[in-house]
Design a protein that fits this description.
Layout: H1 2-15, H2 19-28, H3 43-63, H4 67-80, H5 82-85, H6 87-106, H7 111-119, H8 125-131
Helix pairs in contact: 1-3, 2-3, 3-4, 4-6
């Protein structure tokens, strides 16, 4: 729960409401990687998209649905920033890396989780972990 809540808090404090601050960071560290794949978007839209992805990953980890799939997708942006920000970014992300590794190895998406997700009733990850 801590990992997902921290992702949600960062999305709501650093990126979504503070787009100008995040755009200033992008001016110092050009990380708008969408242009490399042929999608040209202004930095402000890129920041909003990254904030939305952080929020989505946090909510999906919190709910426990599609846990392994979300972890694999979340590893991509976590690793892309290491080459730009260096060892400080690695040290800051170590708790996330360890939690994501645990979720990937031991986390499961049960068929009943998928059925609950389709009905709109999501089980929290903590309850699923305590049940096992």
């Amino acid at each position: 729960m801590g990992v997902s809540l921290s992702l949600i808090v960062v999305a709501f404090t650093d990126k979504l409401p503070n787009v100008p601050m995040a755009v200033e960071v992008l001016a110092d560290y050009p990380m708008n990687s969408l242009a490399a794949v042929g999608i040209r978007r202004p930095d402000a839209q890129f920041v909003q998209m990254i904030g939305a992805v952080e929020l989505l990953v946090g909510l999906c980890v919190l709910s426990g649905v599609f846990l392994r799939d979300i972890i694999v997708i979340a590893w991509i942006p976590f690793n892309l920033t290491l080459g730009i920000f260096g060892p400080e970014e690695l040290v800051g992300h170590l708790p996330f890396y360890s939690a994501m590794a645990l979720f990937f190895v031991w986390g499961k998406s049960d068929p009943e989780d998928l059925a609950a997700w389709k009905r709109g009733i999501l089980k929290p990850t903590l309850g699923a972990l305590l049940r096992r």
